[in-house]
Each structure stands twice: as structure tokens, then as C-alpha cells.
Amino acid sequence: MDWGMKNRLSQIIKPDGKCLFMPIDHGYFLGPTSKLEKPGETIKPLLPYSDALFVTRGVLRSCVPPDTDVPIILRVSGGTSIVGKDLANEGITTSIQEAIRLNASAVGLSVFIGTDYERQTLLNLSELVNEAEGYGIPVMAVTAVGKELEKRDARYLSLCCRIAAELGAKVVKTYWCEDFDKVTNTCPVPVVIAGGPKTETDFEVLEFVYDGMQKGAIGVNLGRNIWQNPHPVPMIKAIRAIIHENATAKEANKIYESEKKRKT
Description:
Layout: H1 3-12, E1 19-23, H2 27-30, H3 39-43, E2 52-55, H4 57-63, E3 72-75, E4 77-78, E5 91-92, H5 96-101, E6 106-111, H6 118-133, E7 139-143, H7 154-166, E8 171-175, H8 181-184, E9 191-194, H9 202-214, E10 219-221, H10 224-227, H11 232-245, H12 249-263
Parallel strand pairs: 1-2, 1-10, 2-3, 3-6, 6-7, 7-8, 8-9, 9-10
Antiparallel strand pairs: 4-5
Helix pairs in contact: 9-11, 9-12, 11-12
């Protein structure tokens, strides 16, 4: 691995080998989703606790302060929407030259394994890796499942993550599931946990983050479970404690409750 690639990876994965990525790219298929109507306002209090920001070029240019020192993971796939026929029908929307212009530390795209567009999205990943490697830019693959939530089991996610790694992804973002160690143990590159739809309770978030970290994840890529929370800063502080301070879910929950009280 060349120096440039190592350097960019070190920007998004901290010296302890762990990371807290905050995605705000949801608008590329959801539009102005709840709490992300004004992305700049949403992320302002959360940036100090984020190790990297996963974002599209449009929102990066219009809503993220250019003097930020938070590394950027640039979302470079899209082409479909929540009201369209199939979320899996994605293509590459943003060039490597754009990523370089925007000083991105990494680029990311979705792959949809098991769908009608599996081959297309896997070739998107391969093409992106081919180009990105030439400039020393790491690629994060997102193992998306669209609307088919029942696919989130260890066997399916292990398949997705391993294929993404085989095609050259340097990091894989995937969903937490039961027996999550079966996913991380068979993926030769770092795995970060996706959040998916907002959970029913705040403690559930802390529980699956803790379990995932114990079972081999290096961190998270959580958006809605943070910025849709009524208390986003206490929540991101609690999650950060699990990732970087080895806190348990119960210890993190105490931080969350304490920060909520302090805020009020």
C-alpha cells in the first residue's frame, strides 16, 4: 500500500484503529429527510465528535464549512430515488477528479448483492477501485439492501462484505446482525456498522454498537440514529465512548443520560 493510501486511511481511521463516521448522504435518494432538511445546521454541533463525514458533493459544497478539519468520505453513487422503481439501479455519479478537487479522504458507493442489479453495482465498485487506486484514494463499499430488510442476516452480510473486499474495497459498511462476528471474521478488510432506520429505543442503538465492536467492527457509520435523536450530541458522545473509550452499552447510556441533563 502506497504512502498516499495509508495517509488517507489514517485520516478516517484514528490511531486506536477505530472510527466514528457520520453519514449525511441520505438526501441523494430520500430527498429532505427528517432532521436533515438543513444539513449544515444539523451537523454543526456534531462535527467535533465525528471522525469523518460521509456526504455527497452537492451538500459538501453548499453546507459543510471549507475550514473544517473533519475528513470527507465522498458518496459517489446514485441515480435512483425512494419513489423510483428500484433503489438498486445505481451508477457512479461523481468522478475521481471531483473527489480530488474536493480533497476527499475516501470515496464510497453502494453495492446491491442479490438484486437484479447485482452485477451492475459490483462492476461500479470494481471500476471505482480501478480509478481510485491510481490516485491512492481508499474506497468504502456500502452493502445496501434497499427495501429488503429481511436479508440482514449473518450469512447474507458475510457474502456481501467478502465480495466487496475481494473487489478491492478498503473498508466495508454493513448492517449489524445476530452473530456479527461471522461477518467480521470472514471479511479481510475493516468493517463499520451501518445504522439503518431509527431504532425504537436509544439503548438499542448503544447495545448493537457495543455488540458489533465486541465482535470485530472497527467503528460505525451512523446517521439517523444520531441526528434524528431528540438529543443528538449526547447520543454521539455516548457512541463515541463505546468506540474510543471501550465503554459498555450501560456505561454509554449513563453518559447519554448525564449529557441530556447537563444540556437542559
